[in-house]
Design goal:
This protein has helices at 29-40, 42-48, 50-57, 61-83, 92-100, 102-121, 123-139, 145-161, 164-192, 205-208, 213-222, 240-270, 275-281, 286-294, 297-332, 350-369, 374-407, 414-437, 439-443, 447-474, 476-480. The chain is mainly alpha-helical and 499 residues long. The model is unreliable at 1-17 and 489-499 (pLDDT under 50).
Length: 499
């Protein structure tokens, strides 16, 4: 039986624990995998983004998703190895602090908060437009997007306010539904043999190494954003030393294989010769047309509904991650202690959740008041800097791994502690360059707007360095204890502890 907040109190940083804490021993491997895969929103990514990858990169697009998955699997080797040694609640910023120092770690902490908030808040614009499209397609009615987005803020706040196991169960149901509709499409295409017979031409080198491959890779890497958040749930995991590692590998393997398979399926639905033209002429309708042809119109209607639930699932997953980062930083003393309050009954970081919801409402209302488009501006202008910021965090975490293991005594192999992290650092650096140089494909904005969006991540990181300098001078105890290991042994922990 999972422990309640009153039964178990986990160490929460360098200071003593007071009051209710997060629920220990609540999440299993599947639960954590549900959170991180839901954050990626597989159905939304496939139906909304994959058609552009096909239009630009041709029938070799599935390989781009495999390459991105393999790259992130290499990253996961060092990432999960380090997770066995670093038990701080700070996740990304704790890893970076241990390898690259406190100042860089504090910069990473601020970048993580801005990045995850950007990834989540911008999606409220997508929620509004996706719901509009669904109601228009199914019932022929038009509604304004703002009430939908505001209602979504309330729903997501409530989901984060409830216990973590409630969120895990809800996301499990929603994730099964959104992946299930794509499996149904795949079954229909495979049973019918596709448009002109099944083909493996997507994996031929001549169709992979084409001018549009760089664009495909940019879309593919963006599709995995959020998979690394497994470590955020360490304090609530059962046997975290094993659970977090397994959930990370499951998430990246599932996303890489599922994305590649689904893109290949939709190519078969139109045929190698016709899919690029179909994707170029009607990217928004590509998946709906395919499922109508091979399954039926009812399935297309259901897909419309499930896209909305896919967006909601992604919002809830990111909201939970943000709340736990806020809680960790409050416990560190970096942000006001009020954000570190945990609900006595639900074991949820409810104060951080309220603050995140208020911030989301302010941003959504500001874009609405400015007359901004909920998709082209609220979603893309807010989401894109968040995506770039999280990719930079992945790169910093990969770089931190070998530096960390040089400083401690350990029995890990060189493949896990040096080779894999170095290879991952190079590949992630290339991925960031690809995304930043093809940002116009994501935003459709001017070069000036794209330059501003790209500059957000480094600007936030520099502000974080300035915050670190201020903390070193004004709160030296907070600075010195930043991302410190918990003083007590973590429940279920079996791995080594860093020196």
């Amino acid at each position: 039986m999972p422990a309640t907040p009153a039964q178990t109190q986990l160490p929460t940083g360098p200071g003593p624990v007071a009051g209710p804490t997060l629920r220990a021993g609540t999440l299993g491997t599947a639960d954590i995998a549900f959170f991180v895969v839901s954050a990626a929103a597989p159905l939304t990514v496939m139906a909304g983004v994959a058609p552009f990858a096909i239009a630009l990169g041709g029938i070799g697009a599935p390989v781009g998703y495999l390459v991105a998955g393999l790259t992130l699997a290499v990253f996961a080797v060092g990432f999960t190895t380090m997770s066995r040694h670093v038990r701080s609640a700070g996740a990304f910023y704790a890893f970076i602090t241990r390898g690259l120092g406190r100042s860089v770690g504090i910069g990473a902490a601020l970048l993580a908060m801005v990045g995850y908030n950007g990834m989540e808040i911008g999606v409220y614009g997508l929620l509004g437009t996706a719901t509009q499209d669904t109601l228009r397609a199914l019932f022929g009615i038009d509604i304004p997007w703002l009430p939908v987005s505001l209602a979504g803020l309330v729903l997501i706040w409530y989901g984060g306010f409830r216990s973590i196991d409630f969120g895990a169960k809800l996301l499990g149901v929603l994730l099964c539904a959104e992946t299930g509709i794509l499996v149904l499409l795949a079954a229909g295409v495979l049973l019918e043999g596709g448009a002109h017979g099944l083909s493996a031409a997507s994996f031929a080198p001549g169709n992979v190494f084409v001018p549009g491959t760089a664009a495909v890779l940019a879309f593919a890497f963006a599709a995995f954003t959020g998979f690394e958040s497994t470590v955020i749930y360490r304090r609530e995991a059962r046997d975290p030393g094993r659970t977090v590692r397994r959930a990370t590998y499951i998430a990246v393997a599932f996303l890489g294989l599922f994305y590649a398979f689904t893109v290949w399926i939709v190519i078969q639905a139109f045929g190698d010769a016709g899919v690029v033209a179909a994707a170029g002429s009607d990217p928004a309708g590509l998946f709906f047309s395919a499922i109508t042809t091979f399954v039926g119109g009812w399935a297309a209607d259901l897909m419309h509904i499930l896209i909305v639930t896919s967006v909601l699932a992604s919002l809830l997953a990111f909201h939970n991650a943000i709340n736990r980062y806020g809680l960790a930083l409050a416990e560190e003393g970096v942000v006001p202690q009020v954000f570190g309050r945990v609900h006595a009954r639900h074991g949820s970081p409810y104060a951080a959740g309220i603050a995140q919801t208020v911030l989301g409402a302010v941003v959504v209302l500001a874009f609405w008041a400015a007359g901004a488009d909920p998709y082209a501006q609220l979603l893309l202008w807010v989401n894109t800097p968040g995506m770039v910021g999280l990719m930079v965090l992945q790169l910093l975490a990969a770089i931190a791994v070998p530096f960390y293991f040089r400083r401690i005594t350990h029995q890990e192999g060189v493949l896990r502690t040096v080779v894999a992290p170095v290879v991952a650092s190079v590949l992630l650096g290339v991925a960031i360059v690809l995304v930043c140089t093809h940002l116009d494909l994501f935003t459709g904005a001017s070069s000036l707007v794209n330059s501003v969006l790209v500059s957000v991540a480094p600007a936030v990181f520099v502000l974080g360095l300035a915050l670190a300098w201020r903390l070193r001078r004004s709160k030296p105890d907070v600075f010195e204890d930043f991302a410190a290991e918990p003083a007590a042994t973590e429940a279920g922990h079996t791995g080594p502890v860093a020196a």
